[in-house]
Amino acid sequence: MDAVRGQRLSLIGFCTLGLAFYTYGVVSAPYIPSHIESIALPLDFMVGIPLGFYLFVIRPRRLTLLSVIPVIWVGYGLSVFALGSTDAGVLPYLLAALVPFEIAIAVKECLKVGNAYKSARKASADPMVWFKETMLYLVRKDAPASMAAAELSVWYYALLSWRKKPYVLPREKSFSYHNAGGYMSMMLGLALAFPVEIVGVHILVSQWSVVAASIVTVLSIYAAIWLIGDARARVMRPAAIGTGCVRLECGIQMEAVIPLSDIEKVCLSESDTGVLDKADKLNYGTFYQANAWVVAKRPFEVRTMLGKKRVRAVGLSLDDPQMFVQAMQESVNP
Questions:
Q1: 8 or 110: whose pLDDT is higher?
Q2: Contact criterion met (CB below 8 Å) for 242 and 172
Q3: Stretch 290-319: mean pLDDT, rounded?
Q4: Which pTM does this prediction carry?
Q5: Exposure string over 243-279, b if 16+ CB within 10 A, otherwise e
Q6: What is the predicted pLDDT for the residue at 6?
Q7: Could you count the other beta carbons within 10 Å of the beta carbon of residue 189?
Q8: Is the pLDDT higher at 183 or at 314?
Q9: Ordered alpha helix ranges (H), the chain
């Protein structure tokens, strides 16, 4: 925790210092001789501060070098603002020298990202794992990597998964949950209503503002793709019982793998889970109406869209909860 706190403080300190340098450079520009200003300011903004960002932020955290490129372009924008021209001083020469450097960084890092993606595909048949491992290479943090992986997975399942088979490992017995609680019927109703709603709202809002109507339409289409992707992921990622563990899934929202030896009980209602704190339970049932609960003897790891959590019980809405409970009891107590 001390190391994490130290890294966080160093990041805050560098960002504060960098902002102070940026502010001082822009404010003091009118008072500096032009021949000095046009050389020193671009060098500080486009080389000095990005180099400090690399040394104090990127390198200690092992972040991708792609992170330094936006810092360089922020420095370029502020240099143009302070000098009043894109052709002032060494600015055009510095930009010409840095662009090939940035391209080299981008090519190198893109190759590494591609290799990380290929390695993840070889190691697992689960698309969520492909995207999660790739994002972990880029950001090195579980929570943002999980959110980015969920976003990419939505597009994959919505657009590219229609000829794929559900993700089931060898010797696993799968249990579907996409029809439980009327979820898929609700999705079908929304799918029928969305085109009419999108067109109607666009026409209505466009009477006031075409730009606002376009934004609302794009957001509506994005929401529709999200719903389609999540619904498709529920079909493609069933819960499954293997030879030594149970794999709990809920579309792109949740995944947990629990050894069968750690299972304490399996029940059909939350009231039967026993005395557990609210923080020790996760309810992923349709409309929070879970019909199957898995309770472990000790906390286990659950991977969610916001990162990892440790709980003792997870609830799902399964299409056949009784069959799942029976199969779990047979697996835990053969």
A1: 110
A2: yes
A3: 93
A4: 0.79
A5: eebbbbbbbbbbbbbbebebbebbbbebeebeeeeee
A6: 64
A7: 11
A8: 314
A9: 2-28, 34-43, 49-53, 59-61, 68-83, 91-123, 127-139, 142-159, 183-206, 210-236, 321-332
